[in-house]
Specification:
By secondary structure, this protein is an alpha+beta fold. Helices cover 29% and strands 23% of the residues. It is built from eight helices and seven strands; from the N terminus they run αβαααββαβαβααββ.
Length: 214
């Protein structure tokens, strides 16, 4: 991909016409999850647009959807409560979206494999950060699956693995990316998502809105 092509990628809000393309993107981006049906389905994406259109975004390259992100607003009590992906997203439908909540929850972010070095993920996160600021939310949170943990599970616990990623000893394509985008690792979420690579573990991550309350 050339530099001129990269500048032509537009980050915008999702519209209903994008849904079939997002489903195809999910299959391409998450083959391990797609194997068990753990990717977005059209009815779920339609629900997201009905409930919280401002929280859904795509990366558009001349009509090709090369990235997407889905989010909702939640309120956790306590603020770092354990949860699973199904619980926090109402089994993917986002019917638990809470306009009175204080946290934007990143339910999913995906990039087409051939464009993964074009900063699309960062731009989608920047779009989310703008959404957090626009709605004057306190923070953005999420659960990032520990993508490479399966390679180290026989040698270290999930907590130790995450700490070694933070220390720069290990590179994890999800957690390392989140840290590079200003997130703080809070704790491990066990049984977060049925996933063979992470062994169902995810990292609870948090980004605080520097403009909150101003």
């Amino acid at each position: 991909m050339t530099t001129s092509d990269q500048t032509e990628i537009i980050i915008r809000r999702t519209v209903s016409e994008d849904i079939p393309k997002i489903v195809n993107l999910q299959k391409e981006s998450f083959p391990y999850l797609a194997r068990y049906g753990n990717i977005w389905h059209p009815d779920e994406l339609e629900s997201h647009l009905r409930i919280f259109p401002e929280g859904q975004s795509v990366a558009d390259l001349h009509g090709e959807i090369v990235g997407s992100a889905s989010s909702l607003i939640v309120h956790l009590d306590p603020e770092y409560a354990d949860h699973t992906w199904k619980e926090i997203t109402a089994d993917g439908m986002m019917t638990n979206h809470n306009p009175q909540g204080d946290s934007l929850y990143g339910a999913d972010i995906s990039t087409a494999p051939k464009y993964r070095h074009e900063h699309i993920g960062k731009r989608l996160y920047d779009f989310r950060k703008e959404t957090v600021i626009k709605f004057n939310l306190r923070r953005m949170i999420g659960g990032g699956r520990l993508f490479n943990y399966c390679d180290y599970a026989d040698k270290t616990s999930a907590v130790e693995y995450a700490q070694r990623v933070i220390n720069g000893e290990f590179k994890d394509p999800v957690l390392s990316f989140e840290l590079e985008n200003g997130f703080k690792f809070i704790k491990i979420l066990p049984n977060y998502l049925d996933d063979v690579r992470s062994l169902n573990y995810a990292s609870f991550i948090e980004w605080l809105n520097p403009s909150y309350g101003k």
